[in-house]
Prior knowledge:
With 416 residues, the protein is mainly beta. Helix content is 5%, strand content 47%.
Amino acid sequence: MKLRNRIIALAMAASTCVGLFAYAASFLKFSPNVISVDAMEIVDSVDLDKLDSESETIIFKSSIAKAVITLEDYSYDYTGKPVYPKIVSVRRSPTAIKDLTENVHYTVSYENNVNPGTGYVVITGIGYCEGTVKKPFTINPPGPLTAVTGFKVSSTNASNVKLSWDKAAGAQGYILYQYKSNKWVRIAKPTTNTYTVSGLSPATNYKFAVKPYMMAGTVEVTSKTYPTVLTTTTPATITKATFTSSANAVKMAWSKVSGAVGYRVYQYNTSTKKWVGIANTSSTSYTFKNLKAGTSYKFTVRAYNKFNNKSVLSAKYTTFSTSTNPAKVSFTVTPAKGKATLKWTKVAGATSYKVYYKTSSTGKWVALKTTNNTTTSYTKTHLTSGKTYYFTVKAVRTTGGKTYNGAYTTKAAKIK
């Protein structure tokens, strides 16, 4: 009975995880038969009335699975760095009055102590303490970021819209949205404060939004509000046109551009070296008038649509080079015996002249001679005396691989 009382006293002492093996050995002889018991359950685990001090050795251990852990704080803001809550005390049980000692009775580790959510202080028993217990704490996700400012359209063309905005404090990147089918759809996640949306349709309105974001572990943190911009792509570029020239006018024609409400035509001023807007038209053709005969010109046309009551022109244009026709040739015909001589005045811009004749007023023109632009006369021989012939001279202008023919007049001459 005396041994029973001493063992119970030993068990009560061991309930604080104090290493008392040496004390137990002072009154228990060593035996190869070892009984290991939890100090808090000693009375139920060991039949002390039958215990033989001559043959049994008892090692007392204490479980800390139900230990009471007190932390200095249980809530922390996310910083992206590990959180290590300060431990105020660790006690074997709610009724224990003595704290356990780190690295003597237990070790400390941490779980989930970086990202937002529930983290844990993990207490693991060592020495005469055994088992593990976890104490939870909370890492709060960061608050919403400040909304982006300065969101604007930097440039547009027929298929692209370039967007830009001010950098947002704390943002790791940005989320771009496009409004489609009555809802916002995420379209890109750039890390810089500019982005070009491509693959758009010409002359079409679009709406975009942007939010800053940062990653807190696996949690995506954004702003509560976001700016939006409404814009439009430009009409497609007109790349083909046809031209019909006269001496003092050029008619330009082109195909209809989808989405365009009108067209603006331009003429290049060779003196100022600038394009000059000439007119707006809803038609797909325009005639430039009051031009100089036999002169080269540059023209272009840009389609436009309307956005916010303003005209939005196609971003690019094609330069078209053409020329007016040379003026009519002023010439004379002098008949003589069996021949006729034509003389004419030089025509500005002409690169050559063509001389024709026919034997009746309703006959077909027959080419007689093509001269250079310095020759101003020609004599047709082997004509029949008393017969009337018909003559004309046309100025010709060849430039840019194209030929422009001037108008002509017909003159009759009766051969002597």
